[in-house]
Design brief:
alpha/beta; three-stranded antiparallel beta sheet; binds D-mannonic acid; 17 strands; TIM Barrel; binds magnesium ion
Length: 424
């Protein structure tokens, strides 16, 4: 039966005659720019002139997603009905032979996010109202305090608490290693993709395991327990090492210990769980609900950290959150600087609406990034507010973006003291 306002049309892309598109997509543009760091942005424009933005940034692999979008996805979008968000997701995911993986899921995410933006603008409503409306007053975020040593870390924690943060992630340099991932030169704007050819960091599990309990213990001793304290292991331990770390941090009352073991070693979480009550978060490199299934079903984690941009957009991230809620697992969306303001806005609209939101990562973008992507979200009192503009509330300044061309930039790699490769 035809939809309201629609009649069968022979013009629909591919296949038999379909219901006429309510809001046909006319243009799909992929914009690559580097205002402080690289971003890939998809802009869809409908026949009636509504535009929607989607983040398509995959750190260090940006051009792979740009090509995937331009060469394989964009041609299938022209003429498609922008109001068919779920169907477009199914078309791109279920319709595809090659599934999942970061490149594919980031491209799908960009399309999906742009379609939600368009829907919000058509309706004249911010996306979170379309997702069911507010479930909370604001989105609690955590900032990144880090220091070369414990003294610098304590200074940085103080800075974040003074700025009103209610939650702080603490990372510290490991004594005897010349650099440690997560510890940056610039304290407010952290950018890990620092060189065209990957920088080589040094790693020692033994030294790390000695340094962290002392550093986090010093944070609690100085600042007390009235704020959430988080720590990111960056996938670097074996399950028994992670179990030991989790146990040694129990007195610090962590909000979470993040990514204790490599993402492909999900069985390892069973062992960690048997040994420690420190809450566990993972998921920033997982790209679909199927990647999270065992972790959630077996309640091996407390927070799922998949993001809108790397896990299939608002549509799929919402599905992951709903699945996680069934098992009392909460969300803690990835929000490093490589997730653009478009992704951050999309995450905030979802965070504020879903029942099982836990916390949102918030690494501030540089001034250049914020200038290229004017946005309506705002930080106050340790929380972000998505704003009330229709859609996502983010635009892109094309002229300014063009002044920041793409520059190759990679994440570092990690070698042990004997020169062998260690997990990222
Ligand atoms: C980190 C990030 O934010 C985090 O939790 O793990 O620094 C992450 O490594 C980068 O976003 C990778 O692109
Ligand atoms: Mg992380």
């Amino acid at each position: 039966m035809p939809e309201a306002g629609g009649a069968p049309s022979p013009e629909a892309p591919g296949g038999p005659p379909r219901i006429e598109a309510v809001e046909p997509i006319e243009r799909a543009e992929v914009i690559v720019c580097s205002p402080g760091r690289n971003f890939v942005t998809l802009r869809l424009t409908t026949r009636s002139g509504i535009t929607g933005l989607g983040d398509a940034t995959l750190n260090g692999r940006e051009l792979a997603v740009a090509a995937y979008l331009r060469d394989h996805v964009a041609p299938t979008l022209i003429g498609r009905d922008a109001t068919r968000i779920e169907d477009t997701w199914q078309y791109l995911y279920r319709g595809g032979y090659w599934r999942r993986g970061p490149v594919t899921m980031t491209a799908i995410a960009a399309v999906d996010t742009a379609l939600w933006d368009i829907l919000g603008k058509r309706a004249g409503l911010p996306v979170h109202e379309l997702l069911g409306g507010r479930s909370r007053d604001g989105v609690t975020v955590y900032g990144h305090a880090n220091g070369e040593d414990v003294a610098e870390l304590l200074d940085q924690v103080a800075t974040y608490l003074e700025r009103g943060y209610r939650a702080v992630r603490a990372q510290v340099g490991v004594p005897g290693l010349r650099s440690t991932y997560g510890v940056s030169r610039d304290k407010l704007f952290y950018e890990p993709a620092d060189a065209a050819i990957p920088t080589e960091n040094l790693w020692s599990t033994e030294r790390y395991l000695r340094a962290i309990p002392a550093a986090l213990g010093a944070v609690r001793e100085r600042f007390g327990f009235e704020f959430a304290l988080l720590h990111d292991v960056h996938h670097r331990l074996s399950p028994i090492e992670a179990a030991r770390l989790g146990r040694s941090l129990e007195a610090c009352d962590l909000f979470w210990m993040e990514d204790p073991v490599p993402a492909e070693l999900q069985e390892g979480y069973r062992l960690i769980r048997q040994h420690t009550t420190t809450p566990i978060a993972t998921g920033e490199v997982l790209t679909s609900i199927w990647d999270c299934r065992t972790l959630i079903e077996e309640q091996l984690i407390d927070y799922i950290r998949t993001s809108v941009v790397h896990a299939g957009g608002i549509t799929h991230q919402r599905r992951i959150a709903a699945f996680a809620d069934t098992y009392r697992v909460r969300t803690g969306s990835h929000g490093a600087t490589d997730l653009s303001p478009v992704c951050l806005a999309a995450a905030l609209h979802l965070d504020i609406a879903i029942p099982n939101f836990g916390i949102q990562e918030y690494m501030r973008h540089s001034e250049e990034t914020d200038a290229v992507f004017p946005h309506s979200y705002r930080f106050a009192d340790g929380m972000l507010q998505p704003g009330a503009d229709p859609g996502l509330g983010v635009t892109i300044d094309d002229g300014l973006a063009a002044r920041f061309p793409y520059r190759p930039a990679s994440l570092p790699v990690n070698r042990r003291l004997d020169g062998s490769m260690h997990d990222w």
